[in-house]
């Protein structure tokens, strides 16, 4: 299945807006798409376990920025993101995001806050599971 994020159009500064049905794939674990997105609907974030099972790591809410860590670090996506209800997404490329952050320092602060929240949520959940 091809992710909804696969597009040939080059985005400079404006995000690409997509209307997405339930089950639309935003991105796939291990994929190197170099963009992130903000969604209005809920998405299921999952990863593959060592045993090959799908493990749901989070249900994102409206307004969450998905793929942010991968876009900022220029690394493959750590999880798969799939819409669990119809919604809309705005995709922005890594280069456009970085330029926007350079131009608007407050955006860079918000991105740092989001990445920090994501990190501590993962640490807290890891302690809760594996004590």
The biggest beta sheet reads: 4 strands, antiparallel
Shape: globular
Low-confidence stretches: 4-12
> Class by helix and strand content?
alpha+beta
Number of strands: 8
The N- to C-terminal Cα distance equals: 37 Å
- Helical coverage, percent range: 25-40%
The sequence of SSEs as H and E is EEEEEEHEEHH
* Number of DSSP helical runs: 3
| Strand order, largest beta sheet | 1-8-3-6
User: What is the overall pLDDT average?
Assistant: 83
Radius of gyration: 15 Å
The percent range for strand residues is: 25-35%
In short:
With 131 residues, this protein is α+β, with helices and mostly antiparallel strands.
Description:
With 131 residues, the protein is α+β, with helices and mostly antiparallel strands. The protein has three helices and eight strands. The strands form two sheets. A four-stranded antiparallel sheet has the order 1-8-3-6. A hairpin with a 5-residue loop joins β4 and β5. α2 crosses α3. It is globular and about 45 Å long. The N and C termini lie far apart (37 Å).
